[in-house]
From TrEMBL:
It comes from the Eukaryota. The chain crosses the membrane at residues 6-34, 41-74, 80-105, 112-137. This is Uncharacterized protein. Keywords: Membrane, Transmembrane, Transmembrane helix. The lineage of its organism: Eukaryota, Metazoa, Spiralia, Lophotrochozoa, Mollusca.
Length: 138
């Protein structure tokens, strides 16, 4: 009789430990997936926002350049002045585009680093929780 009770208790404890471990692993996997999805969505939002800003900046710069060139051509009819203005405007446009592209790349790198750090932290937390649960239950 005592042997049967001991065997039943051992089986129940083993089943509980296995169930708890499986539940913890499933919860951790779900959390990791949720975090990764949130990070990917944030990265996409940032990339779209940056692309929109780049397009708006380029359009504004092009419009300003066209207006300046037209005004210079109308007001000052000298070819040398027009060429200098066009060169200055082109240089400004190129500098603006390069700065915007650098900012976009930096933002994307920062987001990727943050995502990697978050995923690593979540995985470490999950491993620690699983180890603690296994040690406590056993």
């Amino acid at each position: 009789m005592v042997v049967v009770v001991v065997v039943v208790v051992v089986v129940v404890v083993v089943v509980v430990v296995v169930v708890v471990e499986v539940v913890v692993v499933v919860v951790v996997v779900v959390l990791v997936v949720v975090v990764v999805v949130i990070v990917v969505v944030l990265v996409l939002v940032v990339v779209v926002a940056v692309v929109v800003v780049v397009v708006v900046v380029v359009v504004v710069v092009v419009v300003v350049v066209v207006v300046v060139v037209v005004v210079v051509v109308v007001v000052v009819e000298e070819v040398v002045v027009v060429v200098v203005v066009v060169v200055v405007v082109v240089v400004v446009v190129v500098v603006v585009v390069v700065v915007v592209v650098v900012v976009v790349v930096v933002v994307i790198v920062v987001v990727v680093v943050v995502v990697v750090v978050v995923v690593v932290v979540v995985v470490v937390v999950v491993v620690v929780v699983v180890v603690v649960v296994v040690v406590v239950v056993e």
